[in-house]
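A quick aside before the break. I want you to see a complete sequence-to-structure record at least once, exactly as it would be stored in a machine-readable document. Don't worry about memorizing anything.
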Amino acid sequence: MAENLILLDLIDDNPFQTRQTYDDAGIAELAADIYARGLLQPPVGRQVDGRVQLAFGHRRLRAYRHIRTQIDAMGWGAMPVNVQTLSDEQMALAAWSENAQRKDITAIEEAQTIKRMMDGFGWSQSDMGSKLGVDRSTVANKLRLLRLPEEVQARIAGRELSERQAVALLPLYELPKTALNNANKAYTFPRPTDVIKNAGAKSSDRIREDVDRILQNATWRLDVPWADWHFDERGLKEGKCDSCAERMRFEKAFRCPHQTCYERKTALWAALRVAWASTAMEIPAAPVELSYGEYASLANVPQPDQVVAKRCENLRLRFMGDDRQTTTRLRVPDYPDVEIICLHGKDGRCKCASAAKAAATKADPDVQEQKAIEKRIQTEIIEPARAAVLAGLQSGHLGVWRDMTTAIVYNLRLPDDADLDAIRLALAKGLAERQIYFGSDKSNLGAVKQAYEARLKNLGLAVPWDVPPEESLRRRYERIERWTINQEWWKWDYETNLEAIAGNQVNLAALAAEAATLGEAAGELPLLIGALQQQLVELEPVAREINVRRQAGGNWWGRNKMPRIVCQDLLTLEPRSLHFEKVLGEAEAIHVRYALIFANGLERIQALCDRRLALEPERAGEAFPVL
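That is the input. The structure line, written in C-alpha cells, reads:
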C-alpha cells in the first residue's frame, strides 16, 4: 500500500458508487475541519489508465475541492490517496460499505447499487445477500423498488416515502394497467390513486391493508377447476393460466388480474362441461341465458332417475358451477357442476316432475292420511265458521260488526256498549274519509269539498250536494291560474311546454264564453279570465326564448330563482341592486319576480326600490348581490 499525493483533477469517483447528491453544508463543514487540522485518514483508491479511482472517501475529495475553490487555492490542488490493487468486486463492495455508514442514503440508491453489482458480476440474489450479509428476501425487496414509476422513486429519494411504505405500494404497480384503471373506476374503496397519493401520511401496515383490499377487488382467484386447462381460443391473454406472465400470488393463492380473460375462460369451461355431460347423458344443453320461469328444477322430485329415464323432450343440461346447494339440485353423475332441468318454456311447471310427485303422494299412506285430515278441517271447521260470520253480518250481530269496523277503520276505538247504529256510523265515517287528502289548508271549503267529491266518486256514490255552474267555472279557472304561476315562478328548472300554453289559451277562451252565458252570476270571473289570457300571451315569447337558451347550454339559477338572462337586467340598478328578500317585503318581492318575467318591468322595480329606500334611507349606500 502506497500513499501518494494525487492531483485533484486526476481523481475520479468509484464507478460503482451510485450516490447522486451530497450535502453542501456538510461538505463545507468537513472542509473547514481538514483546513484547520489536516487530513487524518487518506482515502483508498486504485490506479486506472493514469488516473485514480477512489474506493471510498468521496466526501473528503469534495472537501479538498471546496478548500481549493472557496478557501485557499495555494497548496490544496492535490490530495493524499492510498493507492492499492483492487478488483472491481472489491471496489463495488467498498462503495456499498461506504454508503452503509451514511445516514442520508436513500432506498433507491441502495437498490441501484445492488442491481449494478448483480449485473456487473453475474451474482444471484442469494450471492448478493451473502456478500452484503443480508438474506435473499431483503435483496429482492430492494430490487423491487426499481419497478416503481419514476415519480414514486422521486418521492422515495425526496424522503416523502420510506422504504417500507414504498414496498407496501409495490403490488399495485405489479397489476396490469387495465386492472389498475378498472380499480380506479370501480365503486369500491379505497381507490389506488387515493392510496398512492396519501401513502406518505400512513403507516406501511395501513397501506398494506388498503392494497390488499384493492387486490381482492381487482383480481380473481385461480383456485378454479379450469386453471390447469389449456384453452385454444383467440382473444385470451394466455391459453393456460400457469403460462401467463401476469399471474400473481396473493394470500398464498394465485390470482388473475385480467377480468375479460377470466370471464371468457369461465364461460368456455362451462360450455365444455355441459358438452361432455351432454355426450354422457344424451341430453341436450340448455341455452346459456335463461330467465326465471323458463325452466323448472328437478330438485326434491321423488325418484328423479325415473323422470330422467323417460327422456322427456324438455330435459336439458345447465352449468351450475361452484353451487353449494348440491342437495337441492339434480346433478349429472360424474359432473356435479351440471344440473338436469326441465325446459318447459313459459307454459307452466314441469309435467314429468308434477306427475312423479303426484304418484309418490298417492302411494304414501302418511301423505294420504294428512290430506284426509286437511279436508275434514276444511269441511267440518273452516267452512261452518265462515258461514256463521256471514250470518252475523247479515243479521246485524254487534260483535261481528264491531270487529269488522275496527279492522277497516284505522285507529278506531269503539266503546263496549256501542249499538249497531253507532258501529255503522263509525264505519261510514271511516269509509268516507279513507284516502282523503286536501293539503294542509283544512279550512279551505273548496279544497275539502273537492276531496270528498273525489272519494264519493271512487265509491261509486252520487255527490249529495250540487255544484253551481259558477263554482265549477271558478275551479277550472283556478287550475289554469295555478299552472300559470308555476310556469312563471316555481319551475324555471324545466323547459316550458309551449303546447301547454297554447292549450290553456284555448281553455281560457272556452271559460270566457261560458262566463258570458252566466251573466252577473259569474262575478269578477270574466275580468280574471281576461287578465290570465293576457299573462299567457306575454309568457309565450319569454318561454320560447328561455327554452332556446336552455337547449344551448346556458347557465341557470336553481329552483325558486329567475334565469340569468333576466337577472342580468338588474345590474343596471347598481349600487342599489336587489336581494329581494332583504330590500323588499315578501309581497313586493313577488311583484318584482313577475315584473322580471314579463317585459318592461324595470320601471316598476325602480319604483319599489325607491319607496323602500325612502323608508330606510340608512340603507341607500348598500349594494346587495343580485339573487
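Two observations worth writing down. The first strand starts at residue 2 and ends at 7. Confidence is low (pLDDT under 50) at residues 489-494, 554-588, 597-601, 622-627. We'll return to this after the break.
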